[in-house]
Amino acid sequence: MFSYPEGTTATNFAFPDHIPDFLDEVVAAANVDVTEACGGNVQCVFDASQTGDLNIGRETMKINEANVVNRQEASELILVTLFSMMGTKKAGNFTGVSEFLELSFIVCA
């Protein structure tokens, strides 16, 4: 939910004539020094070009690199879920389930 300062509405913050900058256009027009400093990482180039701050671009690059590693590690994990039914037996026959017990754990591959 949005809230606006008193006396303002969403209209005060709308800019219908705004033309957004798109990733491919910004990267193509980027300063060579920024592209080299970012090692060609397009997210770094975009953020550094848009903010004028290479440090922001580099932080974006670090976060993206960490995300790639995290995704790779997560893809190697296996989620195992075990169910156990606890019920009552009558004359040796299972007559009903009174509870379910669920146990989940992650196994590294």
Q: Care to describe what's here?
A:
40% of the residues lie in helices and 28% in strands. It is built from four helices and two strands; from the N terminus they run ααααββ. It starts with 22 loop residues before the first helix and ends with a strand. The protein has two domains: 10-75, no CATH class; 77-108, no CATH class. It has helices at 23-28, 32-37, 42-51, 54-75; strands spanning 77-90, 93-108. Helix 3 (42-51) packs antiparallel against helix 4. It has a two-stranded antiparallel sheet with strand order 1-2. It is flat and about 55 Å long. A hairpin with a 2-residue loop joins strand 1 (77-90) and strand 2. It is an alpha+beta fold and 109 residues long.
Summarize the structure.
This protein is α+β, with helices and mostly antiparallel strands and 109 residues long. The chain is built from 4 helices and 2 strands, in the order H-H-H-H-E-E. 40% of the residues lie in helices and 28% in strands.
Poorly predicted ranges: none
Domain module count:
2
Total count of strands: 2
Cα gyration radius (Å): 27 Å
Biggest sheet overview: 2 strands, antiparallel
The total of helices stands at 4
Shape assignment: flat
Mean pLDDT: 80
Strand order, largest beta sheet: 1-2
Helix content: 40-55%
N→C terminal distance: 42 Å
N-to-C series of helices and strands: HHHHEE
Structural class: alpha+beta
| Beta-strand percentage range | 25-35%
